[in-house]
């Protein structure tokens, strides 16, 4: 239960909401019992974190991985006239970044609809 | 028409457009002044963000950096775009849902502390002023290059234009002028790139041209050919790097995290109607930015290739006019060290320092320089890196209107960024320092007046820094990103994702990250530049990349302090819960 004297919880992404949570007044949740909203919000947040982690792994892999750490290995392959590692560092990572954001936009909208939390 | 007339025409027309937009979109309330009323379409906001973000440095200097650094310059390309993924996924939608006006607003409210808010304001002002000085300088340089007015007069004209639309229009005026400025700058950047790519490779799309065969009969790929040409002259391969892997890694990371923590970028996402629009808007911003950022590597490589072909091993008397034009502007120079009348372009510097022309001409007609020759190198040619983008159309013999377009584009890039920075400085003073901290009883009208007065004062300071750039300006760009990465980003991130982070932890983290990063850069860049070599660096990380360590210190200290101090109050935990779900941002906007 959340109370005023709540102590610091673990420094991790805290995605566990308990049933006693009350939605803040500013939210459009009057038509639902508070406990139900909270469960939906908890599940929504967990799904969001899972999605975030997998997308950030790709973000890391294309830039720091392909563009920097494994560049020498990838440079033995060619993409047209580009050595592959060089291409990732100066072109490819940027294209993947764009794709990641738009994938997140679409997927998050679906998740929000599923839990009826979209804006 | 003469190129000079065209330049006046293009620059004059673009300025008239910006002022027209400013008059049409005057701000009437503090909400309009700070966040453009909060109803900006996400695609429009993405375009404005792109102009806000792409500064004089992106437009004028980046391709030049890439040309002379090759693979090593990838840190800028990845660093300055990857930050948008962090923004879209980790910060922007939550900050929009929070629904206030400024970055210190979030930090002050989330950490229930005026002290945290003031620390955030200090970080913000320092970051923004370091950045803006360079913009005003950029305005001055473009003016002096193209319009035959001095740097001082150029800066003053630029100040006047920004004054009109930033002070009158606030965020509303800035948003719509930035959209116009984006269109001007991207058009100016792409047109010469299409021409040059087509001329060199037969493919007009520069991103594809750079990966195509070069049309010089060699049957080689562009990058392969450039590698060969450079290696023949004794340079490193273009596609090989010279920075250490850890330094590449840390600089890229510091630039990415710094980008995500820059207040003038974050605040743009406060202007869209909904939290989900903030995500969308970050995606569009990156699309518009990527157009320029994926073209820059091509411009860099093509520019380098053209420069070598047209300068190296060419007799000075037969060189094309672009060389003498830029020589007349003091930005190119040739010192005939071996007395053969032919220019040799090789690794190393031709002579010590920037050229100091004696006013006399040598046997081939070149302007003589007084600098002591560097006899360790066979190089005879001095080329200012920042000229590459501006000189490109001339080197490729493009028509005068393309050159005029470049002038208007460079100014658009510098002005749009300067205006965005001025706005966050003025709103942090009027809103965070006055309204929320020291003068809570100020009326809405008084606050709006204070915001305009603060913007005016900030323009004066920025103009002064542009006219009399302190020697350290060029040295401290690393500050802006390093400080944003080590102070603001962790505080905002933990504010959203770590419900247990309390005010003691956040303040201790911000201060320790800030002090560490600041001292490291100060020591190596200003106090003891001679020691600024890899052997002395902590873990081999240069001052440009040290923000990453500062960020880790911030996280570490914050979590340690938070775990031994009182937990966050229940209303703050509820606040975090509410910013995590998108529903409800519309209401926050409506009242």
Structure, explained:
The complex is a heterodimer of chains A (119) and B (591). Chain A starts with 33 loop residues before the first helix and ends in a 5-residue tail after the last helix. Chain A has a domain of 81 residues. Chain A contains 3 helices and 2 strands, in the order H-H-E-E-H. The N terminus of chain A is likely disordered. Helices cover 60% and strands 3% of the residues of chain A. With 119 residues, chain A is mainly alpha-helical. Chain B has 591 residues and is mainly α. Chain B has one domain: Sodium/glucose cotransporter. Chain B has a two-stranded antiparallel ribbon. A two-stranded antiparallel ribbon of chain B has the order 2-6. Helices cover 68% and strands 3% of the residues of chain B. Chain B is globular and about 80 Å long. The chains are: A mainly alpha (119), B mainly alpha (591). The interface between A and B is large, with 61 and 71 residues.
How many DSSP helices of chain B? 22
Give the helix level of chain A as a range of percent: 55-70%
Largest sheet report of chain A: 2 strands, antiparallel
Point out poorly predicted stretches of chain A. 1-36
Describe the largest sheet of chain B: 2 strands, antiparallel
Strand content of chain A: under 5%
Measured between the Cα atoms of the first and last residue of chain B, the distance is 54 Å
Distance between the termini of chain A: 28 Å
Largest interface: A-B, 61 and 71 residues
CATH C-level label of chain B: Mainly Alpha
Instruction: Please state how the strands of the largest beta sheet of chain B are arranged side by side.
Output: 1-3
Report the order of strands and helices of chain B: HHHHHHHHHHHHHEHEEEEEHHHHHHHH
Number of domains of chain B: 1
Which strand-content bin applies to the residues of chain B?
under 5%
> Structural class of the secondary structure composition of chain A?
mainly alpha
Low-confidence stretches of chain B: 587-591
- What sequence of helices (H) and strands (E) makes up the elements of chain A? HHEEH
Number of helices of chain A: 3
